[in-house]
Amino acid sequence: MIEGLEKRVIIVGGGPVGLYCAYLIKRFNQRVCVTLIEQKKDVGTNYCCAGHISIYGYRKLMVSSVLDLEKFLVNKIRGAYIFGPNQAKLEIKTEKFQTFLIDRSNFENELYLLAQNVGVEIKLNHKVSSITDDEIVVDDKENNKYLTIKYDFLIGADGPNSIVRDSFENKFDTSDFVVTYQVTAEGDFKKDMVSVYFGDFSKSFFGWIIPISRTQAEIGVGTNITQNPKLAFDQFLTKYNLDIKNIEFNCSGIIPISNLKNKTFVEKNKLLIGDAGCFVKATTGGGIIFGMFSAEAAAKAITLRYKSFKKIDSYNKLLSKYLSNLNLHYKIHQFMTKKTQYELDQMLLKLKEADVEIFLEKYANIDFITGVIPKAIVHPKFYVFYKEILDFIKQK
């Protein structure tokens, strides 16, 4: 521990969420030693993430006043094409840009500098091997030795396969986790529109195209953990006759989708944030924005504990407004997953006839959807969905 600092918070995981949380805790608690443990040798490398985030969501984050999103801009997106399994095709497009594709590597490196500049102790090339209630054992891979580090609070920001989450008594259901395969390749793309494809190549998710430019895009597919994502990707390309070439990058990853209802994200002195806590929109797989919201909530809970002697359990309460939206995303995901390919296609066609494209162009918010659903329920043209609405409401 750094001399003169009597308290220590350890964050496991040096992705954007872990770095952001470390930065905030140290910024608000200068007398606390904040240590970040990252198993990779560098930050901003070896990730499988599209870097596709909502402009609205980012502007809600405190970091937006420190880091201008335009600095990391790769492309601006207005909307999406949604292709059903058979005939359906929806186009949702707004005048204003809704999302940005960012350079995830540069964004992460800027967060690293922020954390470093406020005095966060960063240990790269270190891997946590075991956890107890007040200490962790860390493999210092650079010096080929093991360290035992005591902590007051431990924060898991270590992704879908979190060792911190595994140390919780309250286990998470990982059966809904989605495996992905994604490439960066050349082709002919609509620059300001993403495309989403549903089909039998994916049993529980979808395929996507996120344009980098008119001639380059990120193309991927997600499916349930019982399937081979590369095989699903090949089937996706064949079904939609997608002509891509000059693949520059490919990767496989995990999207930690889980039912967060009645879950606790703090046990004793351990907290979960980001993908470790499954703070992911089940409808889209996006996790950066809500992961960073969870980092803010954890930093606030730690600060309240140190400065106002509040219980660390306040973290769960601070998360409530985000969990209500994530739970609704999950409910929509489950509702759609239970549909057959034919039923899903027919539902999309029916939505198109009811002018859902016009409705979503006016009200869509890909992050905070709790305010959108009530508008949809009372929308006159959606009365034809009364049976589906009742089924959705009844769904647990």
What features would you describe in this structure?
With 396 residues, the protein is of the alpha/beta class. The chain folds into 3 domains: 7-49 and 105-173 and 258-330, FAD/NAD(P)-binding domain (3-Layer(bba) Sandwich); 71-102 and 175-255, D-Amino Acid Oxidase, subunit A, domain 2 (D-Amino Acid Oxidase, Chain A, domain 2), CATH 3.30.9; 338-394, no CATH class. Helices cover 32% and strands 27% of the residues. The chain has 11 helices and 19 strands. The strands form 4 sheets. A 7-stranded mixed β-sheet has the order 6-5-14-15-16-13-17. A 6-stranded mixed β-sheet has the order 8-2-1-12-19-18. Strands 3-7-4 form a 3-stranded antiparallel β-sheet. Helix 1 (16-28) runs parallel beside helix 3, helix 1 packs parallel to helix 6 and helix 6 (288-308) packs antiparallel against helix 7. The radius of gyration is 21 Å and the shape is globular. Mean pLDDT is 92; it is low at 1-5.
Descriptive key words:
396 residues; alpha/beta; FAD/NAD(P)-binding domain; D-Amino Acid Oxidase, Chain A, domain 2; 3 domains; 7-stranded mixed sheet; 6-stranded mixed sheet; 11 helices; 32% helix; globular; disordered N terminus
